[in-house]
Amino acid sequence: MSTIEDLKTAVINGRRKDVKTLVPELLESGIEPSALLSQALIPAMGVVGERFKNNEIFVPEMLVSARAMKEAMNVLEPKLLEAGIRPEHTALIGTVEGDLHDIGKNLVATMWKGAGFDVIDLGVNVPAARFIEAIEEHKPHIVGLSALLTTTMPAMRDTVAAIREAGHTSVKLLVGGAPITQSYANEIGADGYSRDAASAVDAAKEALGV
Amino acid sequence: MKYKTLAISDPAKLIYGVAPNPIETRHGMRIGGGLIYPELNFTLPDINIRKEAMPEIARHYKQIVTEALERAAELEAPGVMLEFETLPPMTEHPALGMEIVNILLEGIERAHGKYGLKATLRCTPNDNREFIRPPVMRSGRYWDAMLELFDQSAAAGAEFLSIESVGGKELHDDALVNGDLRAVLFSLCVMGVRDMNFIWEHIVAIAAKHGVHAAGDTACGFGNTAMVLAERKMIPRVFAAVVRAVTAVRSLVAYECGAVGPGKDCGYENPILKAITGCPMSMEGKTAACAHLSPMGNLAAATADLWSNESVQNIKLLGGMAPTCYMEQLIYDCRLMNTAAAEGEASALKMRDWLVKSDAGLDPQAMIITPESSVAIANAIVASPSHYAAGIAAARAAVKILRETSEAGCLRIDAREAGWLDRMEDELDDMPDTEDAFIEEMMEEVDLEKFTPADYGLPTTASA
Ligand code: B12
């Protein structure tokens, strides 16, 4: 009989086909959807993230695992919703106004999804007003802002200020992008910063105090 | 395919400072005519580009051109190219861009009058078409504003027109992070080639109208994105190296449309293009570490006609403002290479070979643009009947070079990357025979929310 461990291994190895057969099989055997998520999928992505951080695998390999997880989530998500189980944390992410760079931001979104966050990606060139609108709609716990140009760093500063001025004082704001530093993050009043996707999960958890 | 033979078929003739088709500037620089010249690039520090900030922005550019050219004159540079690569709002609002173009042109004329310095300007507007998603590639306000800046800057006296065009990039970033060579070929050789044909026809016409030079493009957003990702250990270096070879097919289209060089600095595919077209090329390497890291800091100079720093912010360093410091570094790099060349062909070749040898064996991306590799890939391209076939041929040639040089012990490939050569070869073996068949297959697979097929003259659905 297949086990939760098999599912975890299948995700780590990016074997989508196996995932596709394992998920219904495990559900049928009586395992709760939430257990599959917390004991197989999230730990699997944790392993993959760790391997990537240690330069054991490349992004394409990491994304194969992410897609395998997504395959499982396609089945699990409706069931979790039915059972009234929502992801513990919701995150918004976007690249600030004037900036089109998104490779780094997309990787951060992937890692956050891997950690079980519900991630809403607002895309690129996102004005402050759009962030605020989305905060009001989705009530996220974290908002990630990305900027890759020195000339869009001011837009990041303005976005942080605008979100705070709009009264959203408790949502945690995380920032990143090549020109961004911890000291810049402190200076503009962000709650967290990470220099790469691999540490973005830790940075988010730290900001959330979990 | 316009080019059926190589302008430089002997790798020993693919060398810095010399191109079969040199270009003369108004103040008498002969690019590709024997000397390698510096090409200085610069950008703003942390500033929000708004109309109200224009006085401060103008002060920055005035300071850059004045101080950097003064240093160039003091160091007796035989000539200098300045590149004004705009920041997006400066192309979106051509009046902002033109304010800077005029400041730079005035600075160039001042330095010519005061010191007799030969300087010239390359204007590189942004390709802002991707600000709309999916991008609108053949019309609209971003397209219009871009052409307007090309036209006005050429009319004002910018002698060289370039761009880092983005056609095909809609699918390419994903192709890279997924290590998907098939999608790379579709982005570069199907979409990219079509857009290059469209955009360069316009740029060449504008250049002709004003008697200036349509210089060239770069697959920066493709090849350098791959390089930066490889540098950060996100994708395999062998994959980035093969992507680089394929980018040459896309960048070549500018020259097929009438561009004459010098090719743009960040196109590390330029040695391949120099072999095919004989046009002079700008390159960047170690002296561009201010902008991005690369594994071929010396090698990049080996075949360059202009030597660039890619971009540096106008900030204060201990030696002076950063652009002035970089002007100095570029001038010293060029001075050394020109001194070697002045001692004759044998010295120049020795110098070139040192530049090549010091990098080539350490990284696949360097190995792919040595003079020998460049000529081999160039040959594969010109022997192909179409851009599609050329892309596959370039990729195959690249895989072969990497395999052979590593087997011969001349190239180090990380153990973790070894399997990727087989993986890429398999993908190439599976490519359909014709471009039409490939397009039909890909139209089933691609995300049609990301681009507009009609903007590329592609069918909207597989069956159409
Ligand atoms: C790829 C690239 C592009 C691609 C972007 C493709 C894409 N879809 O993103 C293209 C070609 C489109 C592009 C365009 C431009 N670019 Co560009 N680009 C780059 C390049 C080479 C790499 C960026 C990248 O993808 N890195 C890889 C990713 C994985 O790393 P990352 O983005 O840093 O993200 C990591 C971390 O920063 C962090 N992170 C990022 N975001 C976030 C967010 C959060 C919340 C957290 C926690 C962490 C986090 O985690 C990520 C994953 O590890 C950089 C060079 C560099 N040194 O960064 C230049 C660079 C950023 N670009 C530059 C420029 C100038 C431009 C253009 C203006 C060029 C032009 N003249 O047309 C345009 C601007 C377009 C626009 N309006 O944004 C300059 C910026 C200079 C400056 N003044 O700031 C750079 C530095 C190159 C240079 N040296 O000149 N570019």
Could you describe the 3D structure shown?
The complex is a heterodimer of chains A (210) and B (464). Helix content of chain A is 56%, strand content 10%. Chain A is built from 9 helices and 5 strands; from the N terminus they run ααααβαβαβαβαβα. Chain B has one domain (11-456). Chain B has helices spanning 54-74, 88-92, 94-115, 140-156, 169-177, 181-210, 220-231, 237-256, 270-277, 322-342, 345-360, 364-367, 371-382, 387-407, 418-429, 435-445; strands at 18-24, 30-33, 37-41, 80-85, 119-124, 160-162, 213-216, 282-284, 306-308, 316-317, 320-321. In chain B, the strands form 3 sheets. In chain B, strands 7-6-5-4-3-9-8 form a 7-stranded parallel beta sheet. In chain B, helix 5 (169-177) runs antiparallel to helix 6 (181-210) and helix 6 (181-210) runs parallel beside helix 8 (237-256). The two termini of chain B are 26 Å apart. The chains are: A alpha/beta (210), B alpha/beta (464). The A-B interface holds A 55-56, 58-60, 63, 98, 100, 102-103, 106-107, 123-125, 149-151, 153-155, 179, 196 and B 43-49, 87-89, 130-131, 133, 173, 176-180, 225, 229, 232-236, 313, 416. Bound molecules: cobalamin. Cobalamin (B12) sits between chains A (98-105, 107-108, 144-146, 148-151, 174-179, 194-197, 200, 203) and B (43, 85, 87-88, 126, 164, 173, 220-221, 224-225, 228-229, 291-292, 310-311).
Oligomer: heterodimer
| Shape annotation of chain B | globular
| Count of alpha and pi helical runs of chain B | 16
Q: Compute the number of strand runs of chain A.
A: 5
How many discrete domains of chain B? 1
Describe the largest sheet of chain A: 5 strands, parallel
How many domains of chain A? 2
| Low-confidence parts of chain B | none
What portion of residues of chain B is helical?
A: 40-55%
Question: What general outline of chain A do the C-alpha atoms trace?
Answer: globular
Ranges of chain A with pLDDT <50 over ≥5 residues?
none
Share in helix of chain A: 55-70%
Structural class of chain A: alpha/beta
Provide a count of the helices of chain A.
9
